[in-house]
Design brief:
Helix content is 30%, strand content 7%. It has three helices and two strands. It has a two-stranded parallel sheet.
């Protein structure tokens, strides 16, 4: 959309480029809207989480360096993080996790 002088207008201005702002940007893209994401930090997409659980419903992170311990980003040591996230996802969806096998036992 442009005015008589030919200036372009945006449909939406998103303030903040954290995971919530980027999620909104994704939805705006799917709606074919013109937008800009304004972020005051050094880079957009900074992950705000507690052991991989964010404040955005359904958005979880796995395998981040130092997500919970030094081994969080190492394949052989992610089983604690996997079990924690499986429990949180199950609790959010109202299901019960009876057992969560570690990555080590699945590799055998």
């Amino acid at each position: 959309m442009a005015n008589a002088a030919g200036d372009e207008f945006l449909d939406v201005v998103v303030i903040g480029g954290s995971q919530a702002g980027l999620a909104i940007a994704w939805h705006l893209t799917r709606q074919h809207l013109r937008f800009v994401v304004l972020e005051a930090g050094p880079e957009p997409g900074h992950v705000i989480h507690r052991r991989g659980v964010t404040d955005v419903p359904g958005l979880y992170f796995f395998g981040l360096p130092w997500q919970h311990t030094r081994g969080s980003a190492l394949l052989g040591f992610v089983h604690d993080d996997a079990a924690h996230l499986a429990g949180r996802i199950a609790a959010a969806s109202g299901t019960l996790v009876l057992a969560c096998r570690s990555v080590r036992s699945l590799a055998r």
